[in-house]
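Same chain as my last thread, 372 residues:
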Amino acid sequence: MRFFSSVFAFLLFCSVSIGQKTGQNWSVFRGNSDLSGNTDYDFPASPVLLWSLPTGERSKSSPVISDGVVYFGNDEGRLIAAGGDGKIKWTFKTDDPIEAPPLVYSDKVITGGYDGVLRANNKSTGKLIWSYETDNQIVGSANVWTSAKGSGIFFGSYDYDLHCIDPATGKPLWKIETDNYVNGTPALANNSIVFGGCDGIIRIADPLTGKEKDTIEIGVYIAASPALSGGKAYFGDYDGAFYCLDLNTRKVLWEIPADGNSGSILSIPAVRGNYVVVGTDDKYIYCYNTTSGKLVWKFRTNGRITGSAVVTPTKVLFGSTDGNIYMLGLKDGKKIWSFNAGAPVSSSPAVTGDRFYFLTEDGRLLAFGIKK
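reply #2:
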């Protein structure tokens, strides 16, 4: 079954995540390797559309940004690099759709595709540097760890494995076998990789060795990725239940059970302070208290929410398949701004210091900001 879905801080003796660099970088899907989807930059209350770049082909990817260049894939199998002026710099053609958001690491753009191949292209020229084959499609983004002992690119595949490869050569380092598809992007924080899969298990693994530290049985498909923050993992399942897992005790601290009205959770939570925000298939986006799991607010759109939100100190930004992009107040869920994109939006936003970007399902890259 198919589900849809740069600055280093070195910590002594442990693997670390790559985070958002203030200014022109959002090089990791969700902004940071912990997939928490938050930024210190606070959007203006009334952004305007700066430009729209049509690509002529449907896209369910999400954009990332490095040094002012935006990278994304489409269903035609093209990896596209676009400048801040809205013009295409280069494209690289594969034979199958690219739904997975790219990862920019060092001088490489690393992207998986439906053909089961993870590729590294030179981020300036688009030239292929290396490729690594799995036995089934890749729909989640790759992530990266680095430490004094080494580094690795890790990602899931529908071949039931989590793979880790050398970022310089594309050669395998290790892999973890699971019992079903690995659909989402694995998260990284505090020397641990945390990921779920369609086997209904949350797995915690060592990034250097690939050895599993623990497994937590959830029992329902986990199609999306966990978001890690404050020693906790937040994630939803395909039935619509939502969880907070303590990564130290390996215990579920709280759970919002699914009911007859729940929609599948295909988006990744966004976490900031006392708030965790997640959209669902039931057309609502929900905000819960991170400590208690108590509902803070909910906001209804007219379409499924399969992309993930980004949160700022005061705002929530997300798209809906109703064709609108929304900005809400983080504390109260009140609508501040919206934009009719003219097509479903299932991508997650990429954010820089002065702009944010969305992809529409009809293949347009939209850039928002303040006109100068």
